[in-house]
Give the backbone structure.
Amino acid sequence: MIAPVSNSPRVFDLMKTTPTHAVSVADDVRLQAIRARDASFDSVFWYGVRTTGVYCKPSCGARPARRENIVFFDSGVLAIAAGFRACKRCRPDLVGSNLHADVVTAMCRQIDEAVHAGQPLPTLDALATRSGFSAFHVHRLFRKATGVTPHAYGAGVRAARVRDGLMNTSSVSVTVLDAGYQSASRFYEHATARLGMTPTHAKRGGAGETIRFAVGETSLGAILVAATDKGVCTIQLGDDANALVHALEARYPQASLVGDDPHFANTVAIVAAHVEAPRGALPLPLDIRGTAFQERVWAALTAIPVGRTMTYTELATAIGQPTAVRAVASACAANELAIAIPCHRVIRATGELSGYRWGVERKAQLLQREHRLMSMREC
């Protein structure tokens, strides 16, 4: 038999707050709401049934349990923490989903604090203990909300800390240890993939890297294309060609920037032509550097056909993470390869055009151009 528990605040210790929806309701009122299956109480309290080990929302259509077998909770999180599982009929776990978001936010904060304190990443069991969920549920809940596992999230935070730290210290080893890696060798195993270049090059602002670039003009304004020896690494649109060049110099202050390569001018011509008349994937090798989640989103973006659009929700569903809409939007915003990775083809569910790092007006013109070209082909 599952023993009743008090409404312990331990689940919310991480948030250092109480659930905003919690309302003090007398037990007799709660019982009356359950008997009446009153849906207006669905976000006010939850109840568990000791004999079945299931928790429900007040409007559940199941046969009411005996009073002595009922225990009340101010949140579904506390019901789960007490060992109850969600009713498959009324799905109380879908009520108050903001609580789940708060718990995931608290876990992210726990990971962030560990990284910034130079401590090892918290284990899945540690996150589970602090949150009140089982390790299995923590893993599933975190991935559903963010699109990545807790470990992958922690690895990304730690890599970002190293990337920032390398610019402010003379020692790679000190930076690596400060970010919580137990040894420099553990970091170096995947350093290049996470930083986009070797740690020494990152520390030196791209020193040792050769980046060829060129600028051109299109009907949408100036365009800058830059490439490493692996392929095109950035495509930027703007109003001022000089400003685009200065931004590239600021990003890689120590890299060897080559802007007078006549052979590279052909690459810019290919990209500029694609701006004017998009005809599918850009026929150039790309040097794509991002987190595992970002690269999944970018790969899905390249699969959107010319002349078609997709909402952020549809894109999240396409990568198997239907609830990670915000994370998908952030990945779109982090795209450095205008046109090549067509984030301009993603729109809001209302059909409106949302933010575009190169300007909403350019986004509208790109879509209009693609629609027009597709219409001409269909004719």
In short: The domain at 96-203 is CATH 1.10.10.60 (Arc Repressor Mutant, subunit A).
